């Protein structure tokens, strides 16, 4: 709606109903413009009835298959049939598809990090970078094999496949290191290491050298993997029976095996909950909530059907089933808040992965290869997890510290990620809300763990932050607690 039409509509409505409240005026203005647009479309088309949205298809003809391919203005498609509804007080705004981007087909890992959305493919060797500001492909990396998993850690994007793990520079799109490590389905970072799912084994690697630091046997067929600040969690029940394994990173041993009523697939975790998708062949259970304090399943959910991909956006867990239906679970109430099939023109959403980032949910479809961007509507990060008082650049207060102590800088981003450095080590990860309205939790923390002469490790990996006021933030690290001030 342009400004002139909005002003005209508002003016006409306000003349007719001078004492209406602002919300009613806005709703009537919106309706008036929508009716005008509908009439114009009907006249232009020469028909009476609902307008039909036409989808467009693009195809890529790539002649150059070099390692790095920078793509200019690769097309995206904006959905004309699923625009976000006008939100009004007390009315939930349903999730909707706002854009689709043609990508390589097949089951695809998706990663929202390093100022971009990254898409791999299990049917081609391409990793594609998408600019979330334009919904266009801005670059491609040609790997030597298909990609089974993606991760963002230690200043790089990591892509792994059946025989190799590649380190990709997110700016130049060049593969800077390749490690001969098998990766079946899962990849994550934490405790200064990379953790790779390789069949019935989890391999811990040094990201700088690719040296194998540990090889940990798990009981069942593995699938997804993630880390919290205290443990590594593996969905290792895909081959049955259902199971989740907990690995202690200090001893590199499995310290707990939690039985599941369904075969487990992917997972996402914080320190107070682990959420797992399940293969519901004989039951209606698709998503499980595990309490890491007791290592027990405390809740189960019957939506979506036969769940695969899972992600967290603020206080909400998003999960998708193979059939394409999407479910949103409110972590505060343990209730399914939304369950619906989201359909893009010419395809049904599905596949194995989805990702949360840049205020959206990103879902891949296998055939045709398509990445759909979902506006979460009402089910977006709450003010607690996206508070303007938290997002921004912070520096540790020097009060009570030695004059030569290095400065600690922390940048908390609105897309749910953070990056920090203490003049020796770098760390990055994600942040989200907790049950405490003034506290956030840092998770999926990747940390370089360098030994720097004359530069003590002043924080260790960050764990949590508490908002003291608009200009002060108390941050808890594994070594100490510091007060940060706004930079």
Give the topology.
Blueprint: H1 3-16, H2 22-45, E1 68-69, E2 96-102, E3 110-113, E4 116-119, E5 126-131, E6 136-142, E7 149-153, E8 156-160, E9 165-168, E10 175-179, E11 187-190, E12 193-198, E13 201-205, E14 212-217, E15 225-227, E16 232-235, E17 243-248, E18 253-259, E19 263-270, E20 273-279, E21 287-291, E22 296-301, E23 307-313, E24 316-321, E25 325-330, E26 335-341, E27 343-344, E28 347-348, E29 354-357, E30 360-365, E31 370-375, E32 392-396, E33 409-412, E34 417-421, E35 426-433, E36 439-447, E37 462-469, E38 472-477, E39 481-486
Antiparallel strand pairs: 1-6, 2-31, 3-4, 4-5, 5-6, 7-8, 8-9, 9-10, 11-12, 12-13, 13-14, 15-16, 16-17, 17-18, 19-20, 20-21, 21-22, 23-24, 24-25, 25-26, 27-28, 29-30, 30-31, 32-33, 32-39, 33-34, 34-35, 35-36, 36-37, 37-38, 38-39
Summarize this structure briefly.
With 487 residues, this protein is mainly beta.
């Amino acid at each position: 709606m342009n400004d002139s039409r909005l002003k005209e509509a508002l003016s006409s409505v306000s003349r007719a109903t001078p004492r209406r409240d602002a919300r009613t005026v806005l709703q009537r203005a919106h309706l008036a413009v929508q009716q005008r647009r509908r009439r114009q479309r009907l006249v232009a088309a020469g028909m009476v009835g609902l307008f039909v949205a036409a989808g467009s298809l693009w195809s890529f003809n790539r002649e150059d298959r070099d390692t790095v391919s920078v793509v200019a203005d690769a097309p995206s498609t904006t959905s004309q049939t699923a625009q976000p509804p006008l939100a009004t007080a007390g009315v939930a705004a349903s999730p909707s598809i706002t854009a689709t981007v043609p990508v390589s087909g097949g089951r695809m890992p998706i990663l929202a990090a390093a100022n971009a959305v990254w898409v791999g493919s299990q049917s081609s060797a391409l990793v594609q970078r998408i600019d979330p500001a334009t919904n266009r492909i801005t670059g491609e990396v040609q790997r030597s094999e298909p990609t089974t998993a993606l991760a963002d850690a230690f200043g790089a994007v990591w892509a792994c496949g059946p025989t190799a793990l590649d380190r990709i520079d997110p700016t130049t799109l060049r593969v800077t290191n390749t490690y001969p490590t098998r990766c079946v389905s899962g990849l994550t970072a934490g405790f200064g290491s990379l953790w790779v799912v390789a069949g019935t084994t989890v391999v811990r690697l040094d990201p700088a050298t690719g040296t194998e630091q540990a090889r940990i046997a798990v009981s069942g067929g593995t699938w997804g993997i993630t880390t919290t600040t205290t443990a590594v969690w593996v969905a290792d029940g895909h081959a049955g029976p259902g199971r989740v394994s907990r690995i202690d990173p200090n001893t590199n041993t499995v310290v707990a095996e939690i039985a599941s009523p369904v075969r487990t697939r992917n997972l996402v975790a914080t320190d107070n909950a682990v959420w797992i998708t399940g293969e519901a062949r004989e039951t209606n259970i698709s998503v499980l909530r595990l309490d890491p304090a007791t290592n027990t399943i405390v809740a189960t959910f019957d939506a979506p059907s036969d769940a695969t991909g899972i992600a967290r956006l603020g206080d909400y867990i998003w999960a998708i089933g193979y059939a394409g239906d999407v479910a949103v679970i409110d972590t505060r109430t343990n209730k399914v808040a939304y369950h619906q099939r989201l359909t893009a023109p010419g395809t049904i959403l599905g596949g194995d992965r989805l990702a949360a980032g840049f205020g959206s949910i990103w879902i891949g479809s296998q055939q045709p290869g398509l990445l759909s961007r979902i506006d979460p509507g009402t089910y977006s990060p709450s003010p607690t997890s996206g508070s303007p008082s938290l997002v921004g650049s912070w520096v540790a207060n020097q009060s009570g510290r030695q004059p030569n102590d290095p400065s600690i800088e922390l940048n908390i981003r609105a897309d749910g990620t953070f990056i920090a450095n203490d003049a020796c080590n770098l760390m990055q990860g994600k942040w989200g809300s907790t049950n405490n309205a003034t506290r956030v939790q840092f998770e999926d923390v990747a940390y370089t763990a360098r030994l720097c002469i004359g530069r003590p490790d002043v924080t260790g990996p960050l764990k949590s932050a508490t908002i003291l006021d608009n200009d002060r933030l108390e941050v808890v690290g594994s070594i100490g607690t510091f007060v940060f001030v706004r930079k």
